[in-house]
Amino acid sequence: MNMLQTALEEIGTKSELEKIINESENVMVCCGRMGPMCIPVYDVMEELQDERENVKFYTMAFDNPEAEIIKNAPECRGFMGLPFTMYYKNGKAVKATSSIQNFDQITGILDEHFN
Amino acid sequence: MDDVFDVMIIGGGAAGLTAGIYSSRAKLSTLILNEGAVGGQMVLTDEIANYPGVETTSGYKVANTMKKQAKDFGCKIKSNVKIVKYAFDENIKEVELKDGRKFQAKTVILAPGGSPKALNIPGESTFLGKGISYCATCDGDFFTDKEIIVAGGGNSALEEAVALTNYASKVTIVHQFDHFQAFEHAIEEAKNNPKINFIMRAELRQFIGNGKLQMITLEHLSSGNVEDLKVDGVFIFIGYKPNTESLKKIVNLNEKNEIITDSEMKTNIPGVFAAGDSIVKKYRQVTTAVADGTIAALSAVEYLRN
Ligand SMILES: Cc1cc2nc3c(=O)[nH]c(=O)nc-3n(C[C@H](O)[C@H](O)[C@H](O)COP(=O)(O)OP(=O)(O)OC[C@H]3O[C@@H](n4cnc5c(N)ncnc54)[C@H](O)[C@@H]3O)c2cc1C
Q1: In the A/B pair of chains, how many CB contacts fall below 8 A?
Q2: Which of B9, B41, B235 gets mutated to test ligand 1 (max ligand atoms within 8 A of its CB)?
Q3: What stretches of chain A show up as alpha helix (H) in DSSP?
Q4: Looking at the predicted structure, is the pLDDT value of residue B2 above 70?
Q5: Which among B48, B125, B129, B191 is most buried, taking Cβ atoms within 10 Å?
Q6: Which of B79, B137, B156, B243 to mutate to test the pocket of ligand 1 (most atoms within 8 A of CB)?
Q7: Phi, psi (deg, nearest 5) at residue B137
Q8: What is the pTM of this model?
Q9: What is the pLDDT of residues B53-101, one digit of tens each?
Q10: Domains plus CATH for chain B?
Q11: B212 touches A: beta carbon within 8 Å
Q12: Does the beta carbon of B11 sit less than 6 angstroms from any atom of ligand 1?
């Protein structure tokens, strides 16, 4: 059952995440809660979902024990602000951000790494 | 370019969404253009306990219901847009977005609300999410048993400082004045909390760290002395400012950059109305934003009829 109420697809398990990032070229995963710093990021992703067909957009609940795979990722070391957002290219993490990001910041990362 | 809308609403917070509900329900073609996430400050609000008729719920849920209501009545909503040009002098008003798209309408309702103020000092954006936060409920648990600073001296700063003592071992409130601008009960509660310390008449000057925040530079305003303090985190609650920067030469604002309206939410420009936290008023709440949005929409309906 989904823990996050967004219009994005929610990843439930570690193996599901691994399968997705290995099978898709460009993946953005926002790992958070239904909180003030996370919702604006989901909103941007929902908006971009229709525009950026070369990117797959997903969420993962921060309180899901399976999200350890993101919380303990080396790219997230030192992160102290929700959400933790990961960008994967061909199965490898190419960028990670902590806390709220706006439309321009997110599209900047997508343009830099996924275009 | 799309057709000419009857009503174009700038801002999709409580005021803008309410205006959208009323004008689209009055069968006016309505467009909401919103810069950030739909819902505005409501989505920043963990819990809303004082919206009449709705039991305590999350701000996100209220915002989402309002958005659905507006859409169900036919209101079009575009979020995460950036308006770069406003032309309101003619009968048909026009805005241009950063991506070059233009939208026109017979009336405009300005509802851009407000945003938390940033300190705008070196290191602030570098350490966002790496020791700097604007949300105690979101990030408090990352600071369990750590020493943190809360910048600010209003109700939010004091209330959030008390909430943060559930996690942090020590909370130091740094405030620029020698007194707080908060309700007496909030001041008392903070003062009575053994985990809270105060540094008055001082301002943060810079954030320092390596990968994550480690230190802050603080200036004591009375003596001019500057010192570096070791910290694990800083939470910033220094108030809100109206989002009217881009409207400065477009509509009349007061000295605090709030939009001046009359009781029918009319601005100085015929056919342009305003509502919510960005207008001149004393109390900024969801209920007052919703009331303003209602009045602005009904005034727009009347304007179009005449
Ligand atoms: C932490 C917190 C807790 C609160 N708790 C409560 C509470 O418990 N009860 C209560 O009643 N009130 C509470 N409030 C106050 C309440 O949330 C606000 O008064 C109300 O939501 C204001 O609504 P608004 O529509 O005027 O503005 P906002 O909510 O600020 O919405 C404005 C919208 O316009 C967008 N925008 C800004 N500029 C532009 C532009 N140029 N073009 C397009 N769009 C633009 C913004 O991105 C935003 O989405 C709280 C506020 C905060 C921050």
Answers
A1: 81
A2: B41
A3: 14-23, 39-51, 68-71, 103-114
A4: no
A5: B129
A6: B243
A7: -65, -30
A8: 0.86
A9: 999 998 889 999 999 999 999 999 999 899 999 999 999 999 999 989 9
A10: 5-115+240-305 (3.50.50.60), 118-236 (3.50.50.60)
A11: yes
A12: yes
Kindly list the structural domains of chain A, giving each domain's residue range(s) and its CATH number in brackets, ordered by start.
9-113 (3.40.30.10)
- Find all residues with CB under 8 Å of B302, minimum gap 6, and list them: none
Residues on chain A touching B139 (C-beta within 8 angstroms): 37, 80-82, 99
The full length of chain B comes to 306
Inform me whether the C-beta atom of residue B135 falls under 8 Å from chain A C-beta atoms.
yes
A95 in contact with chain B, both atoms CB, cutoff 8 A: no
The token pair that represents B216 in the structure block: 């802050």
CB A37 within 8 A of CB A82: yes
pLDDT digits (tens, 9 = 90+) for A29-54: 999 999 889 999 999 999 899 889 99
Amino acid at B263: S
**A108 three-state secondary structure:** helix
The Cα–Cα gap between A32 and A8 comes to 13
A82 touches chain B (CB under 8 A): yes
